[in-house]
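Protocol step 4 of 5: obtain the predicted structure for the target chain.
Materials: sequence only (see below). No template structures provided, no constraints applied. The aim of this step is simply to have a reference model before the mutagenesis design in step 5. Sequence pasted as it appears in the construct record:
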Amino acid sequence: MRAAVLHEIGQDKLEVLDDVEATGFGPGKVKIRVRATGLCHSDVSAMNGVLPQPAPFVPGHEGAGEIVDVGDGVSGLAPGDRVLLCWLPACGTCPACKRGQTQLCLAGFMNAGTPNFKRPGSDVFGFAGTGTFAEEVVVDAGCAVPIPDDVPFDIAALIGCGVTTGLGAAINTADVAAGSSVAVIGCGGVGISAIQGARLKGAAQIVAVDPVASRREAALRFGATEAVSPDELADAKQRITAGEGFDYVFEVVGKSATARTAYETTRRGGTLCVVGAGAMDDNLQLNMFELFFDEKRILPSMYGGGDVLTSYERAIALWRAGRIDLEGLITHRVPLAEINEALDQMRTGVALRTCIEI
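Step 4 output (structure tokens):
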């Protein structure tokens, strides 16, 4: 089968090969024919080494498709079922799951260290234990979440990561208050989803911050009340909040520099929500006095900060009701053979989300 493979960490191009095989099928597993997958910035971060991932590997973790086969012991799933891929399934038995914090379950991360593809002479890993830039993938049954027949594969793929992460950051983690002021730094697919979440929660002002003009224009269509470049943020803070700072600031870039800007843009007693996934050696510096004196809440948000299955259902319900726009997030479409074009679209910022059709 075909799959896009990164041979070594640090390479900026993927090679689409036709000699890759999905492996590991057996009890408790399912094989999925991938139909659509989104390119998430986390895939690029894994390629360049910001996020830890063994190589060679198949990127992609935001996908949807059809069940091809189910292993022994799998219930509730059958060949032909339409599913989205959950890259962070809950085991249900660990301390985090028992506390109701299923988004902190580590079971899914354990899968990332086991190859789930192979090609002649080499094992190949799947990013985040999945690897959706492939025609087929074998995953634990818990990674396959059934979707209703009226949800297209491309929409389901977005719900599998970016939409759930962004909406959940605003709705679950920050719990944005009606009438509040919000700034979102970084307006790709996840940032736009955070904007939609803040709008749903009734935020009065939502300022989108991004260096790319097309993304700023898009943010206004999705609910931002104003869109500014990073060097215009200080002026927006002064105009909108009289210099006090925003009630909620979402950092959706994953860099200490933007997190520091976000902290400084948050009012005293306000909430900084860290959504971007950054590098382990990129340290955010705060002094102990400001941490005490400002009493700002710093809330990291992992995968939307809530039960992902509930979040999937909520996103589908909101989409059906026309309360969120998911089709508009997909600004570009490419076949798997042109995956490197999708990477260029993300790196230049012209795409909110590129759908890779497989």
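Step 4 remarks: The first strand starts at residue 3 and ends at 5. The radius of gyration is 20 Å.
Proceed to step 5.
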